[in-house]
Amino acid sequence: xxFADIIGHERIVEVFRRSVRSGKTPHSYIFEGIPGCGRKKTxxxxxxxxxxKAVADDACGVCPSCRKVAGGNHGDIHFVEPLxxxxxxxxxxxxEIQRELALRPYEAPRKACIMEPAERMSVNAANSLLxxxxxxxxxxxxxxxxxxxxMLLPTIRSRxxxxxxxxxxxxxxxxLLEQSxxxxxxxxxxxxxxxxxxxxxxxxxxxxxxxxxxTLLTHLAALDLGRIRTIFDTAEExxxxxxxxLESLDLLLSVARxxxxxxxGCTDIVNTAIRPALESFAAxxxxxxxxxxxxxxxxxxxxxxxxxxxxxxxxxxFMKMAEAIA
Length: 326
Ligand SMILES: [Zn+2]
Hints:
Oligomer: single chain
Distance between the termini: 53 Å
Bound molecules: zinc ion
Number of domains: 2
Radius of gyration: 25 Å
CATH architecture of the largest domain: 3-Layer(aba) Sandwich
Largest sheet: 5 strands, parallel
Strand order of the largest sheet: 2-3-4-1-5
CATH topology of the largest domain: Rossmann fold
CATH superfamily of the largest domain: P-loop containing nucleotide triphosphate hydrolases
Shape: elongated
Number of strands: 5
Order of helices and strands: HEHHEHEHEHEHHHHHHHHH
Helix content: 40-55%
CATH class of the largest domain: Alpha Beta
Strand content: 5-15%
Structural class: alpha/beta
């Protein structure tokens, strides 16, 4: 994947372009960021650009070398991760990779190694890596992926260039999900719940969420202060553990945002799959009350994050909402 296709890390990519163009790329990097934010993809893009001879500061994406990197079968890229039944990356694995890196590259100008998660190197393994980081055999490039660089030995950190990756914005997650083939509606639904990680987005259960959004809307339409049961039932249904409650609130937020849009006369909503139900819900409240609802949901989300009681917080929110749409 060429730099041009990396989404959400433009500044980092710009630095890499310059360094590839100059021909003076550091030997060792630490890429710090949450899993699923694009560290590995960017690492591969950097290696692809270093290997490709067609473009000065990026990969062409079509030459045999680029295609092998993209296909995950380039003989000069080595991956190190804990063995299937092991917690740590062992010293034996480190020795093996050191031997590999010392060999002549098959076809690339240099060898490359991606290690993930680098913080799981045993102390022995980490110590044995120090020498390699100092004098990488054959100009090899070593990229360590970690969630938290502080978990690596200071001696490792000081020998690598640290690149910090931020989490992806919901907008970028949406874009990436659509690129991966999801429908626009489902991508919209998952993006705000992804916590900026494509890994997390992949773990979310689309079908369950689609169903929950429908349940949510049915409950919202039935909220009635005069029938207090409807408030408690809705809270009961949507509260769960802390994460589930936050997930429900994110769904609610997305629905409320669309309600504000519709009430403001804008038809460009995100939850297109439930447009008729949303339109009828929006018809039952004013723009002011939709805005109020949005504020109340955000406030409730904060309260839950500060460890408020999930069910109580939701009950309180739904009472406010019922009052607003009454
Ligand atoms: Zn190429």
